[in-house]
Amino acid sequence: MIINYLILFLKNIFFFFSKKGRPEKSLENFVLSPCGKYITFLGNNGNIILVSAQTKRLITTLKMNGTVTSIAYTKDGRYLFSFGGDGEVYKWDMNKFTCVLRFRDDGCIHGTSIAVGHQRVLNQSDIGESVLLACGSDTGIVNLYRFDSDKPVLIHTFKNLVTPITKLKFSHDSQILAMCSRLKKNAFRFVIFFDSSFFFFLKKN
Predict the structure, then answer these.
(1) Which of 124 and 72 is assigned the larger pLDDT?
(2) What is the pTM of this model?
(3) What is the CA radius of gyration of the chain?
(4) Beta strand 47-52 with 127-137: parallel, antiparallel or unpaired?
(5) Residue 144 to residues 67, 131, 135, 191: CA-CA distances in angstroms?
(6) Cα-based angle 38, 164, 194 (whole degrees, multiple of 5)
(7) Per-residue pLDDT tens over the stretch 160-170
(8) What stretches of 46-126 adopt beta strand conformation (E)?
(9) What separation, in Å, do the N-terminal and C-terminal C-alpha atoms of the chain show?
(10) Is the dihedral of CA 154, 159, 162, 168 positive or negative?
(11) Which of 45, 49, 99, 128 has CA 20 to 30 A from 200's CA?
(12) Do 84 and 46 meet the contact criterion of CB atoms below 8 Å apart?
């Protein structure tokens, strides 16, 4: 039932876009915002297409230079991160639909996957949270950033895989990062965060 509804929904969205003269031939790559407001499609030519989850109508389009290969929301849905085929990362303010930060992933030529997590930080006065950002490339390298005062700080580079990263995913509490490449058998790693240490586990079939 849910699958049939989703197929019908995508057909309606595609019909609406075709009437608007959009160049996209398919719309299978999309992400739902955690706040439930937006359905976010990866379009052509660096376009990120925002559709209202309630009305199913186009809200706006965010534009990157180059192509868009992966997107991920912060857990509150306030910010959207997008990764480009040119190796650049964009941070979007979803209240204003504007880019508030743009930087190049360290050493990356072609970005393939991105994931957003969070980390609890103990300050002098209270306990806060900082954003964790994992960026995977076509060389199999994954860079992990922490955002301090809205500035990305590279805290670790993982070189355990040698084929393009096709998927990155944090667990709900961001204590585990899964990384994989579907281009090679058993190309799967878990990264477990514990007291600033990293432990690697290879998934066995």
Answers:
(1) 72
(2) 0.83
(3) 18
(4) unpaired
(5) 22, 11, 7, 11
(6) 75
(7) 899 999 999 99
(8) 47-52, 58-63, 68-73, 79-84, 88-93, 98-104, 111-122
(9) 32
(10) negative
(11) 128
(12) yes
